[in-house]
Protein backbone atom coordinates (compact mmCIF):
# COMPACT_ATOMS: atom_id res chain seq x y z
CA UNK A 1 0.00 0.00 0.00
CA UNK A 2 3.04 2.19 0.00
CA UNK A 3 3.19 1.67 -3.72
CA UNK A 4 3.49 5.18 -5.14
CA UNK A 5 0.99 4.27 -7.84
CA UNK A 6 -1.85 3.90 -5.38
CA UNK A 7 -2.93 7.56 -5.34
CA UNK A 8 -2.82 7.67 -9.14
CA UNK A 9 -4.94 4.59 -9.34
CA UNK A 10 -7.54 6.37 -7.30
CA UNK A 11 -7.84 9.30 -9.68
CA UNK A 12 -10.37 7.76 -12.07
CA UNK A 13 -12.82 7.02 -9.25
CA UNK A 14 -13.65 10.56 -8.19
CA UNK A 15 -13.79 11.74 -11.78
CA UNK A 16 -16.20 8.98 -12.69
CA UNK A 17 -18.54 9.81 -9.84
CA UNK A 18 -18.20 13.50 -10.32
CA UNK A 19 -18.72 13.91 -14.05
CA UNK A 20 -22.38 12.79 -14.23
CA UNK A 21 -23.25 15.13 -11.37
CA UNK A 22 -21.83 18.15 -13.09
CA UNK A 23 -23.16 17.34 -16.54
CA UNK A 24 -26.61 15.85 -16.17
CA UNK A 25 -27.90 16.79 -12.71
CA UNK A 26 -30.94 14.58 -13.26
CA UNK A 27 -31.26 12.09 -10.44
CA UNK A 28 -33.17 13.10 -7.34
CA UNK A 29 -30.41 12.21 -4.95
CA UNK A 30 -27.93 14.19 -6.96
CA UNK A 31 -30.22 17.20 -7.04
CA UNK A 32 -30.65 17.00 -3.30
CA UNK A 33 -26.91 17.12 -2.89
CA UNK A 34 -26.54 20.05 -5.21
CA UNK A 35 -29.50 22.31 -4.47
CA UNK A 36 -28.77 23.61 -0.95
CA UNK A 37 -25.62 25.45 -1.93
CA UNK A 38 -25.28 28.08 -4.58
CA UNK A 39 -21.53 27.79 -5.04
CA UNK A 40 -20.85 24.57 -6.94
CA UNK A 41 -17.07 24.59 -7.05
CA UNK A 42 -16.15 24.11 -3.38
CA UNK A 43 -18.78 21.39 -3.18
CA UNK A 44 -17.28 19.63 -6.15
CA UNK A 45 -13.90 19.98 -4.61
CA UNK A 46 -15.24 18.55 -1.40
CA UNK A 47 -16.86 15.59 -3.15
CA UNK A 48 -13.72 15.06 -5.11
CA UNK A 49 -11.43 14.97 -2.12
CA UNK A 50 -13.96 12.95 -0.14
CA UNK A 51 -14.09 10.33 -2.88
CA UNK A 52 -10.33 10.47 -3.22
CA UNK A 53 -9.93 10.06 0.47
CA UNK A 54 -12.40 7.17 0.71
CA UNK A 55 -10.64 5.49 -2.18
CA UNK A 56 -7.24 5.89 -0.59
CA UNK A 57 -8.43 4.52 2.74
CA UNK A 58 -10.20 1.63 1.05
CA UNK A 59 -7.08 0.81 -0.94
CA UNK A 60 -5.09 1.00 2.24
CA UNK A 61 -7.40 -1.31 4.11
CA UNK A 62 -7.38 -3.73 1.21
CA UNK A 63 -3.62 -3.56 0.94
CA UNK A 64 -3.25 -4.29 4.62
CA UNK A 65 -5.58 -7.22 4.36
CA UNK A 66 -3.42 -8.73 1.66
CA UNK A 67 -0.31 -7.93 3.61
CA UNK A 68 -1.43 -9.63 6.77
CA UNK A 69 -3.48 -12.60 5.77
CA UNK A 70 -6.57 -13.49 7.75
CA UNK A 71 -5.80 -16.18 10.27
CA UNK A 72 -9.47 -17.12 10.42
CA UNK A 73 -8.93 -19.18 7.28
CA UNK A 74 -8.16 -22.77 7.98
CA UNK A 75 -8.05 -26.15 6.36
CA UNK A 76 -11.18 -28.24 6.11
CA UNK A 77 -9.59 -30.61 8.56
CA UNK A 78 -9.43 -27.93 11.21
CA UNK A 79 -13.12 -27.17 10.77
CA UNK A 80 -14.10 -30.73 11.63
CA UNK A 81 -15.60 -31.43 15.03
CA UNK A 82 -13.13 -32.02 17.82
CA UNK A 83 -13.18 -35.73 18.74
CA UNK A 84 -10.90 -35.29 21.72
CA UNK A 85 -12.71 -35.53 24.99
CA UNK A 86 -10.85 -35.43 28.29
CA UNK A 87 -13.68 -37.29 29.97
CA UNK A 88 -12.67 -40.35 27.95
CA UNK A 89 -9.43 -40.94 29.76
CA UNK A 90 -7.84 -40.55 33.17
CA UNK A 91 -5.25 -37.83 33.65
CA UNK A 92 -1.64 -38.93 33.45
CA UNK A 93 0.99 -38.00 36.03
CA UNK A 94 2.28 -35.01 34.04
CA UNK A 95 -1.02 -33.79 32.65
CA UNK A 96 -2.27 -30.31 33.43
CA UNK A 97 -5.94 -29.94 34.33
CA UNK A 98 -6.06 -26.54 32.64
CA UNK A 99 -8.50 -26.01 29.79
CA UNK A 100 -7.18 -27.53 26.59
CA UNK A 101 -6.72 -25.14 23.65
CA UNK A 102 -9.36 -26.04 21.03
CA UNK A 103 -8.14 -27.94 17.98
CA UNK A 104 -9.17 -25.08 15.68
CA UNK A 105 -6.88 -22.59 17.46
CA UNK A 106 -4.03 -25.03 18.07
CA UNK A 107 -3.88 -25.77 14.35
CA UNK A 108 -4.34 -22.30 12.85
CA UNK A 109 -2.03 -20.22 15.03
CA UNK A 110 1.42 -21.67 14.51
CA UNK A 111 4.98 -20.58 14.13
CA UNK A 112 6.47 -22.84 11.49
CA UNK A 113 8.81 -20.70 9.41
CA UNK A 114 9.38 -23.55 6.96
CA UNK A 115 5.94 -22.61 5.64
CA UNK A 116 6.18 -18.86 6.20
CA UNK A 117 6.58 -16.28 8.93
CA UNK A 118 2.90 -15.39 9.31
CA UNK A 119 1.03 -17.46 11.87
CA UNK A 120 -1.63 -18.27 9.31
CA UNK A 121 0.91 -19.59 6.78
CA UNK A 122 1.37 -23.09 8.26
CA UNK A 123 -2.35 -23.97 8.24
CA UNK A 124 -2.72 -22.50 4.75
CA UNK A 125 0.27 -24.25 3.21
CA UNK A 126 0.62 -27.48 5.21
CA UNK A 127 -0.97 -29.43 2.34
CA UNK A 128 2.40 -29.45 0.59
CA UNK A 129 3.97 -31.47 3.40
CA UNK A 130 3.81 -35.24 2.80
CA UNK A 131 4.25 -37.00 6.16
CA UNK A 132 4.10 -40.50 4.62
CA UNK A 133 6.29 -42.18 3.57
CA UNK A 134 8.80 -40.73 6.03
CA UNK A 135 12.04 -42.01 7.40
CA UNK A 136 14.08 -40.90 10.37
CA UNK A 137 17.84 -41.32 10.39
CA UNK A 138 19.35 -42.14 13.76
CA UNK A 139 23.11 -41.82 14.03
CA UNK A 140 26.08 -40.50 15.98
CA UNK A 141 27.08 -41.89 19.33
CA UNK A 142 24.68 -44.85 19.33
CA UNK A 143 25.25 -48.56 19.15
CA UNK A 144 22.34 -49.03 16.77
CA UNK A 145 22.48 -46.37 14.08
CA UNK A 146 19.76 -46.87 11.49
CA UNK A 147 17.28 -45.30 9.12
CA UNK A 148 13.79 -46.19 10.13
CA UNK A 149 10.30 -45.74 8.73
CA UNK A 150 8.07 -43.53 10.87
CA UNK A 151 5.35 -46.17 11.20
CA UNK A 152 7.86 -48.75 12.44
CA UNK A 153 9.39 -46.22 14.82
CA UNK A 154 5.95 -45.38 16.17
CA UNK A 155 5.09 -49.07 16.62
CA UNK A 156 8.06 -49.57 18.95
CA UNK A 157 6.25 -47.77 21.76
CA UNK A 158 2.77 -47.75 23.23
CA UNK A 159 1.35 -44.31 22.40
CA UNK A 160 0.26 -42.19 25.32
CA UNK A 161 -1.48 -38.84 25.89
CA UNK A 162 0.24 -35.88 27.49
CA UNK A 163 -1.62 -32.66 28.22
CA UNK A 164 1.16 -30.09 28.40
CA UNK A 165 1.33 -26.34 28.67
CA UNK A 166 3.21 -24.79 25.75
CA UNK A 167 4.79 -21.37 26.09
CA UNK A 168 6.03 -19.47 23.03
CA UNK A 169 8.97 -17.09 23.41
CA UNK A 170 6.72 -14.40 21.91
CA UNK A 171 4.57 -14.32 25.05
CA UNK A 172 1.58 -16.53 24.27
CA UNK A 173 0.74 -19.99 25.47
CA UNK A 174 -1.54 -22.95 24.78
CA UNK A 175 -2.48 -26.22 26.41
CA UNK A 176 -1.79 -29.06 24.03
CA UNK A 177 -3.06 -32.63 24.26
CA UNK A 178 -0.22 -34.49 22.58
CA UNK A 179 -0.09 -38.12 21.59
CA UNK A 180 3.26 -39.89 21.40
CA UNK A 181 5.98 -41.59 23.40
CA UNK A 182 8.69 -40.52 25.82
CA UNK A 183 11.95 -39.44 24.19
CA UNK A 184 13.82 -41.38 26.88
CA UNK A 185 12.30 -44.64 25.64
CA UNK A 186 13.61 -43.96 22.13
CA UNK A 187 17.08 -42.96 23.30
CA UNK A 188 17.46 -46.03 25.52
CA UNK A 189 16.45 -48.24 22.63
CA UNK A 190 19.16 -46.65 20.46
CA UNK A 191 21.76 -47.50 23.13
CA UNK A 192 23.87 -44.35 23.37
CA UNK A 193 27.63 -44.78 23.82
CA UNK A 194 29.46 -43.23 26.75
CA UNK A 195 30.48 -40.33 24.51
CA UNK A 196 26.89 -39.20 23.96
CA UNK A 197 26.30 -35.92 25.79
CA UNK A 198 23.78 -34.16 23.57
CA UNK A 199 20.93 -35.02 21.25
CA UNK A 200 20.68 -33.09 18.01
CA UNK A 201 17.46 -33.02 15.99
CA UNK A 202 17.25 -32.00 12.35
CA UNK A 203 14.04 -31.13 10.51
CA UNK A 204 13.23 -31.84 6.88
CA UNK A 205 14.91 -29.68 4.25
CA UNK A 206 12.80 -29.66 1.09
CA UNK A 207 11.66 -26.46 -0.62
CA UNK A 208 8.94 -28.41 -2.44
CA UNK A 209 7.30 -29.45 0.80
CA UNK A 210 8.35 -26.36 2.75
CA UNK A 211 7.83 -23.30 0.52
CA UNK A 212 9.10 -20.99 3.29
CA UNK A 213 12.56 -22.53 2.94
CA UNK A 214 12.97 -20.75 -0.40
CA UNK A 215 13.70 -17.68 1.69
CA UNK A 216 16.71 -17.77 3.94
CA UNK A 217 14.78 -16.28 6.87
CA UNK A 218 16.56 -18.87 8.99
CA UNK A 219 19.39 -21.19 8.09
CA UNK A 220 17.72 -24.36 6.87
CA UNK A 221 17.31 -27.11 7.85
CA UNK A 222 16.03 -26.24 11.31
CA UNK A 223 18.23 -27.75 14.00
CA UNK A 224 17.51 -28.13 17.70
CA UNK A 225 19.15 -29.93 20.56
CA UNK A 226 19.00 -31.03 24.17
CA UNK A 227 21.53 -32.10 26.71
CA UNK A 228 21.29 -35.88 27.15
CA UNK A 229 19.95 -35.62 30.71
CA UNK A 230 17.27 -33.18 29.53
CA UNK A 231 16.34 -35.59 26.76
CA UNK A 232 16.10 -38.44 29.25
CA UNK A 233 13.80 -36.49 31.58
CA UNK A 234 10.39 -38.18 31.65
CA UNK A 235 8.71 -34.95 30.46
CA UNK A 236 10.60 -34.93 27.15
CA UNK A 237 8.23 -36.27 24.57
CA UNK A 238 8.07 -37.23 20.92
CA UNK A 239 4.63 -36.34 19.57
CA UNK A 240 3.00 -38.04 16.59
CA UNK A 241 -0.54 -36.90 17.35
CA UNK A 242 -2.60 -34.03 18.68
CA UNK A 243 -6.12 -33.99 20.09
CA UNK A 244 -6.40 -37.74 19.65
CA UNK A 245 -5.57 -37.74 15.95
CA UNK A 246 -2.56 -37.81 13.67
CA UNK A 247 -0.39 -34.71 13.96
CA UNK A 248 -1.41 -32.13 11.33
CA UNK A 249 1.30 -30.76 9.03
CA UNK A 250 1.25 -27.31 10.59
CA UNK A 251 1.93 -28.84 14.01
CA UNK A 252 4.99 -30.70 12.80
CA UNK A 253 3.86 -33.96 11.21
CA UNK A 254 4.82 -36.71 11.39
CA UNK A 255 7.22 -36.46 14.33
CA UNK A 256 8.06 -33.56 16.61
CA UNK A 257 9.79 -32.88 19.87
CA UNK A 258 7.91 -31.54 22.90
CA UNK A 259 9.88 -30.21 25.86
CA UNK A 260 7.20 -28.36 27.83
CA UNK A 261 9.46 -26.44 30.23
CA UNK A 262 11.24 -24.71 27.36
CA UNK A 263 10.08 -22.04 24.91
CA UNK A 264 8.19 -23.38 21.93
CA UNK A 265 11.00 -22.98 19.38
CA UNK A 266 12.88 -25.83 21.08
CA UNK A 267 10.05 -28.14 20.03
CA UNK A 268 11.44 -28.91 16.58
CA UNK A 269 8.91 -30.16 14.04
CA UNK A 270 8.98 -32.65 11.16
CA UNK A 271 12.13 -34.40 12.37
CA UNK A 272 14.15 -36.48 9.85
CA UNK A 273 17.32 -37.05 11.83
CA UNK A 274 18.31 -37.66 15.43
CA UNK A 275 22.02 -37.55 16.19
CA UNK A 276 23.66 -38.24 19.52
CA UNK A 277 26.84 -36.22 19.86
CA UNK A 278 29.55 -35.19 22.29
CA UNK A 279 29.21 -31.52 21.30
CA UNK A 280 26.49 -29.00 22.06
CA UNK A 281 24.53 -28.57 18.81
CA UNK A 282 24.48 -25.13 17.18
CA UNK A 283 20.74 -24.63 17.06
CA UNK A 284 18.93 -22.60 14.41
CA UNK A 285 17.74 -19.72 16.58
CA UNK A 286 21.10 -19.47 18.33
CA UNK A 287 22.64 -18.99 14.92
CA UNK A 288 20.02 -16.42 13.95
CA UNK A 289 20.19 -14.28 17.10
CA UNK A 290 22.47 -15.65 19.84
CA UNK A 291 21.83 -12.67 22.13
CA UNK A 292 18.10 -13.39 22.09
CA UNK A 293 17.75 -17.16 21.90
CA UNK A 294 20.01 -19.38 23.93
CA UNK A 295 20.59 -23.12 23.85
CA UNK A 296 18.60 -23.81 27.01
CA UNK A 297 15.60 -21.54 26.36
CA UNK A 298 13.98 -22.53 29.63
CA UNK A 299 10.76 -20.63 30.29
CA UNK A 300 11.87 -18.04 32.82
CA UNK A 301 9.75 -15.05 33.88
CA UNK A 302 12.81 -13.48 35.54
CA UNK A 303 14.85 -13.29 32.33
CA UNK A 304 13.40 -10.84 29.80
CA UNK A 305 13.76 -11.21 26.10
CA UNK A 306 15.79 -8.15 25.01
CA UNK A 307 12.69 -6.68 23.39
CA UNK A 308 9.90 -7.74 25.70
CA UNK A 309 9.26 -8.96 29.20
CA UNK A 310 8.67 -12.67 29.78
CA UNK A 311 6.91 -12.07 33.11
CA UNK A 312 3.45 -12.57 31.65
CA UNK A 313 1.84 -14.47 28.82
CA UNK A 314 -1.48 -14.65 27.04
CA UNK A 315 -3.16 -18.03 27.05
CA UNK A 316 -4.67 -18.35 23.59
CA UNK A 317 -8.42 -17.88 23.91
CA UNK A 318 -8.11 -15.43 26.80
CA UNK A 319 -7.96 -11.63 26.57
CA UNK A 320 -6.00 -10.94 29.72
CA UNK A 321 -2.51 -12.04 30.63
CA UNK A 322 -1.38 -14.47 33.28
CA UNK A 323 1.86 -14.70 35.18
CA UNK A 324 4.46 -16.92 33.55
CA UNK A 325 5.66 -19.74 35.79
CA UNK A 326 9.35 -20.68 36.15
CA UNK A 327 10.05 -23.63 33.85
CA UNK A 328 6.51 -23.13 32.58
CA UNK A 329 5.16 -24.72 35.76
CA UNK A 330 7.39 -27.83 35.58
CA UNK A 331 10.03 -26.66 38.09
CA UNK A 332 9.47 -29.67 40.36
CA UNK A 333 10.31 -32.03 37.54
CA UNK A 334 13.23 -30.22 35.91
CA UNK A 335 14.80 -27.53 38.13
CA UNK A 336 17.34 -30.06 39.42
CA UNK A 337 18.76 -30.41 35.89
CA UNK A 338 20.14 -26.88 36.15
CA UNK A 339 21.52 -26.96 39.67
CA UNK A 340 24.50 -24.65 39.99
CA UNK A 341 23.93 -23.05 36.61
CA UNK A 342 23.35 -19.31 36.17
CA UNK A 343 20.19 -19.32 34.08
CA UNK A 344 20.66 -15.64 33.25
CA UNK A 345 23.78 -16.60 31.36
CA UNK A 346 22.58 -20.01 30.24
CA UNK A 347 19.26 -18.67 28.95
CA UNK B 1 -12.23 4.84 9.40
CA UNK B 2 -12.92 1.80 7.25
CA UNK B 3 -10.03 -0.22 8.68
CA UNK B 4 -11.35 0.39 12.18
CA UNK B 5 -14.75 -0.92 11.08
CA UNK B 6 -13.06 -3.96 9.52
CA UNK B 7 -11.08 -4.46 12.72
CA UNK B 8 -14.20 -4.30 14.89
CA UNK B 9 -16.07 -6.60 12.52
CA UNK B 10 -13.17 -9.08 12.50
CA UNK B 11 -12.96 -8.94 16.28
CA UNK B 12 -16.66 -9.68 16.65
CA UNK B 13 -16.70 -12.42 14.01
CA UNK B 14 -13.56 -14.12 15.30
CA UNK B 15 -11.63 -13.41 12.11
CA UNK B 16 -8.79 -11.92 14.14
CA UNK B 17 -7.79 -15.47 14.88
CA UNK B 18 -6.48 -17.17 17.97
CA UNK B 19 -4.69 -14.12 19.37
CA UNK B 20 -6.95 -11.16 18.52
CA UNK B 21 -5.17 -8.60 20.69
CA UNK B 22 -1.81 -9.33 19.15
CA UNK B 23 -3.32 -9.11 15.69
CA UNK B 24 -5.18 -5.89 16.45
CA UNK B 25 -1.94 -4.41 17.76
CA UNK B 26 -0.13 -5.40 14.59
CA UNK B 27 -2.92 -4.12 12.33
CA UNK B 28 -3.23 -0.71 13.99
CA UNK B 29 0.54 -0.36 14.04
CA UNK B 30 0.78 -1.11 10.33
CA UNK B 31 -2.09 1.26 9.58
CA UNK B 32 -0.38 4.02 11.53
CA UNK B 33 2.83 3.62 9.62
CA UNK B 34 1.06 3.32 6.27
CA UNK B 35 -1.03 6.45 6.87
CA UNK B 36 1.95 8.48 8.04
CA UNK B 37 3.94 7.37 5.01
CA UNK B 38 1.04 8.30 2.73
CA UNK B 39 0.73 11.72 4.34
CA UNK B 40 4.46 12.23 3.89
CA UNK B 41 4.13 11.14 0.27
CA UNK B 42 1.74 14.01 -0.50
CA UNK B 43 4.33 16.73 -0.81
CA UNK B 44 6.79 14.73 -2.95
CA UNK B 45 3.87 13.68 -5.13
CA UNK B 46 2.88 17.32 -5.64
CA UNK B 47 6.48 18.26 -6.33
CA UNK B 48 6.80 15.52 -8.92
CA UNK B 49 3.46 15.84 -10.66
CA UNK B 50 2.24 19.34 -9.96
CA UNK B 51 -1.08 17.94 -8.69
CA UNK B 52 -2.66 19.84 -5.85
CA UNK B 53 -5.04 17.21 -4.47
CA UNK B 54 -2.44 15.27 -2.49
CA UNK B 55 -1.74 18.37 -0.44
CA UNK B 56 -5.42 18.65 0.43
CA UNK B 57 -5.71 15.15 1.88
CA UNK B 58 -2.32 15.33 3.61
CA UNK B 59 -3.68 16.64 6.89
CA UNK B 60 -6.50 14.07 7.03
CA UNK B 61 -4.03 11.25 6.41
CA UNK B 62 -1.72 12.54 9.10
CA UNK B 63 -4.53 12.90 11.63
CA UNK B 64 -5.84 9.43 10.82
CA UNK B 65 -2.32 8.15 11.29
CA UNK B 66 -2.22 9.76 14.71
CA UNK B 67 -5.64 8.26 15.49
CA UNK B 68 -4.38 4.77 14.71
CA UNK B 69 -1.19 5.38 16.67
CA UNK B 70 -3.32 6.32 19.68
CA UNK B 71 -5.49 3.23 19.15
CA UNK B 72 -2.36 1.07 18.82
CA UNK B 73 -1.12 2.49 22.14
CA UNK B 74 -4.51 1.98 23.81
CA UNK B 75 -4.55 -1.67 22.75
CA UNK B 76 -1.03 -2.03 24.12
CA UNK B 77 -2.20 -0.51 27.44
CA UNK B 78 -5.23 -2.77 27.50
CA UNK B 79 -2.98 -5.74 26.77
CA UNK B 80 -0.91 -4.90 29.82
CA UNK B 81 -3.91 -4.33 32.08
CA UNK B 82 -3.41 -0.53 32.05
CA UNK B 83 -0.43 -1.14 34.34
CA UNK B 84 1.45 2.16 34.06
CA UNK B 85 4.48 0.94 36.04
CA UNK B 86 4.88 -1.91 33.58
CA UNK B 87 4.47 0.53 30.71
CA UNK B 88 7.09 2.93 32.12
CA UNK B 89 9.48 0.03 32.60
CA UNK B 90 8.87 -1.09 29.02
CA UNK B 91 9.43 2.43 27.66
CA UNK B 92 12.61 2.94 29.66
CA UNK B 93 14.13 -0.52 29.29
CA UNK B 94 13.30 -1.61 25.78
CA UNK B 95 14.51 0.45 22.83
CA UNK B 96 11.80 -1.17 20.72
CA UNK B 97 9.09 0.33 22.94
CA UNK B 98 11.01 3.58 23.48
CA UNK B 99 11.07 4.24 19.74
CA UNK B 100 7.36 3.63 19.31
CA UNK B 101 6.39 5.65 22.37
CA UNK B 102 8.59 8.58 21.36
CA UNK B 103 7.04 8.56 17.89
CA UNK B 104 3.58 8.74 19.46
CA UNK B 105 4.62 11.63 21.75
CA UNK B 106 6.05 13.52 18.78
CA UNK B 107 2.76 13.19 16.94
CA UNK B 108 0.76 14.78 19.79
CA UNK B 109 1.82 18.42 19.21
CA UNK B 110 1.33 17.90 15.48
CA UNK B 111 -2.23 16.71 15.98
CA UNK B 112 -2.93 19.58 18.40
CA UNK B 113 -1.71 22.19 15.92
CA UNK B 114 -3.49 20.77 12.91
CA UNK B 115 -6.12 23.53 12.78
CA UNK B 116 -5.81 26.60 10.54
CA UNK B 117 -6.01 28.72 13.69
CA UNK B 118 -2.92 27.04 15.10
CA UNK B 119 -1.05 27.76 11.89
CA UNK B 120 -1.96 31.43 12.24
CA UNK B 121 -1.07 31.60 15.89
CA UNK B 122 2.32 29.94 15.42
CA UNK B 123 3.13 31.66 12.18
CA UNK B 124 3.59 29.58 9.05
CA UNK B 125 7.37 29.24 9.36
CA UNK B 126 7.34 28.03 12.94
CA UNK B 127 4.37 25.77 12.23
CA UNK B 128 6.22 24.21 9.29
CA UNK B 129 9.31 23.65 11.36
CA UNK B 130 7.24 22.04 14.12
CA UNK B 131 5.56 19.75 11.64
CA UNK B 132 8.90 18.53 10.37
CA UNK B 133 8.77 16.41 13.53
CA UNK B 134 6.65 14.12 11.39
CA UNK B 135 9.87 13.04 9.64
CA UNK B 136 11.37 11.99 12.97
CA UNK B 137 8.14 10.32 14.09
CA UNK B 138 7.77 8.23 10.94
CA UNK B 139 11.42 7.19 11.04
CA UNK B 140 11.06 6.13 14.67
CA UNK B 141 7.88 4.31 13.69
CA UNK B 142 9.74 2.32 11.05
CA UNK B 143 12.53 1.55 13.53
CA UNK B 144 9.93 0.43 16.07
CA UNK B 145 8.48 -1.91 13.44
CA UNK B 146 11.93 -3.22 12.51
CA UNK B 147 12.83 -3.95 16.12
CA UNK B 148 9.47 -5.51 16.83
CA UNK B 149 9.78 -8.16 14.14
CA UNK B 150 11.31 -11.41 15.31
CA UNK B 151 12.98 -12.50 12.13
CA UNK B 152 11.61 -11.63 8.68
CA UNK B 153 12.64 -8.00 8.29
CA UNK B 154 11.48 -7.56 4.71
CA UNK B 155 8.27 -5.57 5.38
CA UNK B 156 9.88 -3.04 7.78
CA UNK B 157 12.76 -2.62 5.34
CA UNK B 158 10.30 -1.88 2.53
CA UNK B 159 8.77 0.84 4.71
CA UNK B 160 12.20 2.21 5.52
CA UNK B 161 13.10 2.28 1.82
CA UNK B 162 9.90 4.12 0.89
CA UNK B 163 10.46 6.65 3.67
CA UNK B 164 14.06 7.17 2.56
CA UNK B 165 12.90 7.64 -1.05
CA UNK B 166 10.35 10.24 0.04
CA UNK B 167 13.01 12.15 1.98
CA UNK B 168 15.29 12.01 -1.03
CA UNK B 169 12.64 13.40 -3.38
CA UNK B 170 11.97 16.22 -0.92
CA UNK B 171 15.64 17.00 -0.67
CA UNK B 172 16.30 16.93 -4.42
CA UNK B 173 13.16 18.80 -5.38
CA UNK B 174 13.11 21.43 -2.67
CA UNK B 175 16.58 22.82 -3.23
CA UNK B 176 16.37 23.96 -6.84
CA UNK B 177 12.70 24.80 -6.45
CA UNK B 178 13.38 27.42 -3.81
CA UNK B 179 14.71 30.01 -6.26
CA UNK B 180 12.43 29.04 -9.11
CA UNK B 181 9.30 28.65 -7.03
CA UNK B 182 7.54 31.87 -8.06
CA UNK B 183 8.18 31.27 -11.73
CA UNK B 184 7.09 27.66 -11.74
CA UNK B 185 3.94 28.49 -9.83
CA UNK B 186 2.95 31.09 -12.43
CA UNK B 187 3.69 28.66 -15.22
CA UNK B 188 1.52 25.98 -13.70
CA UNK B 189 -1.58 28.13 -13.28
UniProtKB/TrEMBL annotation, chain A:
Residue numbers binding Mo-molybdopterin: 110, 113-114, 168, 251, 256, 267-269
Entry GO MF terms: oxidoreductase activity
Record keywords: Metal-binding, Molybdenum, Oxidoreductase, Signal
InterPro entries linked: MsrP, OxRdtase_Mopterin-bd_dom, OxRdtase_Mopterin-bd_sf
Domain Oxidoreductase molybdopterin-binding: 130-285
Stretches with biased composition (Basic and acidic residues): 85-97
Reactions the enzyme catalyzes: L-methionyl-[protein] + a quinone + H2O = L-methionyl-(S)-S-oxide-[protein] + a quinol; L-methionyl-[protein] + a quinone + H2O = L-methionyl-(R)-S-oxide-[protein] + a quinol
Quaternary structure and partners: Heterodimer of a catalytic subunit (MsrP) and a heme-binding subunit (MsrQ).
Stated family: Belongs to the MsrP family.
Function text: Part of the MsrPQ system that repairs oxidized cell envelope proteins containing methionine sulfoxide residues (Met-O), using respiratory chain electrons. Thus protects these proteins from oxidative-stress damage caused by reactive species of oxygen and chlorine. MsrPQ is essential for the maintenance of envelope integrity under bleach stress, rescuing a wide series of structurally unrelated cell envelope proteins from methionine oxidation. The catalytic subunit MsrP is non-stereospecific, being able to reduce both (R-) and (S-) diastereoisomers of methionine sulfoxide.
Protein name stated in the entry: Protein-methionine-sulfoxide reductase catalytic subunit MsrP
Organism annotation: Deinococcus aquaticus
Taxon lineage: Bacteria, Thermotogati, Deinococcota, Deinococci, Deinococcales
From TrEMBL, chain B:
Subcellular location: Cell membrane; Membrane
Membrane topology according to the record: Multi-pass membrane protein
Transcription among keywords: no
Cofactor or coenzyme needed: FMN; heme b
Cofactor note: Binds 1 FMN per subunit.
Superkingdom as given in the UniProt entry: Bacteria
Keyword set includes tRNA-binding: no
Keyword field: Cell membrane, Electron transport, Flavoprotein, FMN, Heme, Iron, Membrane, Metal-binding, Transmembrane, Transmembrane helix, Transport
Function noted in UniProt: Part of the MsrPQ system that repairs oxidized cell envelope proteins containing methionine sulfoxide residues (Met-O), using respiratory chain electrons. Thus protects these proteins from oxidative-stress damage caused by reactive species of oxygen and chlorine. MsrPQ is essential for the maintenance of envelope integrity under bleach stress, rescuing a wide series of structurally unrelated cell envelope proteins from methionine oxidation. MsrQ provides electrons for reduction to the reductase catalytic subunit MsrP, using the quinone pool of the respiratory chain.
Listed name of the protein: Protein-methionine-sulfoxide reductase heme-binding subunit MsrQ
Organism of origin: Deinococcus aquaticus
Gene name in the database record: msrQ
Amino acid sequence: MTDPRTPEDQTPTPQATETPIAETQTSDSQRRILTPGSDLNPRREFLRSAAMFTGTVAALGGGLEVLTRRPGLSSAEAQAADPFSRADRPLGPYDTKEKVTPYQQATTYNNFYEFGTDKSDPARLAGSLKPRPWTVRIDGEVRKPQTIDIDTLQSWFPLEDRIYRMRCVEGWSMVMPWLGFPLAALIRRLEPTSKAKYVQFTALLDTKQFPGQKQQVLKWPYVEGLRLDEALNPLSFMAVGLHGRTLPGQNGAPLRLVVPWKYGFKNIKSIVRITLTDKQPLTTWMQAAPQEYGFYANVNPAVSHPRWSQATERRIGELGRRKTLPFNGYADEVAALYKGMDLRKNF
Amino acid sequence: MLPVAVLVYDALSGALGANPIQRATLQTGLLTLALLVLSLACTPLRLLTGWTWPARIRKTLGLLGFGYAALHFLIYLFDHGFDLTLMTEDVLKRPFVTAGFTALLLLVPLALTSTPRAVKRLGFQRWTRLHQLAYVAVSLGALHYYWGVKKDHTPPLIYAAVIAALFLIRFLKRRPARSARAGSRAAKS
